[in-house]
Amino acid sequence: MEMHQVRYFLAVAQLLNFTRAAEECNVTQPSLTRAIKQLEAELGGDLFRRERPAAQLTELGQRMHPLLKQCYEAAAGARSLASSYKSGEVGALRIALTHAIDLSLLIPHLNQIRRQFNRLEFRFLRGSSREVADYLRKGEAELGIAAEIDEAWERLDVWPLFTENFDLVIAKGHRLAGRSTIECDDLRAEQMLSRNYCEHASRISSSLREHGIDVDHGHEISCERDLIELVEADIGIAMLPHTSPVPENLRRVALSGLDARRTVNLYGVAGRQRTAVANAVMRMLRGADWRAIAG
Description:
Number of helices: 10
Helix content: 40-55%
Distance between the termini: 62 Å
Structural class: alpha/beta
Order of helices and strands: HHHEEHEHEHEEEEHEHEEEHH
Strand content: 15-25%
Low-confidence stretches: none
């Protein structure tokens, strides 16, 4: 079955006249008639009763009409969408982020890129650092953002964006909330909230453990929202990257004596063609001045 056969069928079904349908489709009547006969042969029955003065749909033709119309409209829509992508009217961005990267980092850049396209479609994928690498390898994402991807794939390109510190986040009613800085010794009686979804979770836990802080009997958290709610309830305290937003009812305090930093990287696949949107976003992120938000 070919689309021109379906188009001719729909024209005859609408006009109920082979001659007028041929004129409408800008083809000769023999060509139109031959194409419809080929379609009837493929479907196994007559689609029209050739009567004068008007053709009539057979029962098979009536049943096939909505299906063939849907098929033709879907194909036409696909061609239109492909043309829009090619001309730059429509853009798509598939980007993967680890759970520890806050989407607010991208919002100013996404708003900026939206002005360059009449229509823009985003697809955001979340996962661990290993899952982000898999999204890139399989082509499900064009770009990835993570603090660290432990992946030795030779085609994985990496561009560092910024380096930031981890801060201690506590409730405003916490006993340490009035201090501008907190010493590691002050945390020995506290219960820590472990961000197991963060690429640096084990590294930070090791550093805290070296300072005598009990992280092995803390609370294990699997998402940022749960962590924030537990801190708000003063059930525990947490180490958060400087770029992670926190509500106004929480305090962000520097922890003295602990070297806790992470570098946020942009990842791509070397040698793989990217869409115009992905290329624009990549240039934008690499050229951005991150100092204001990274502290």
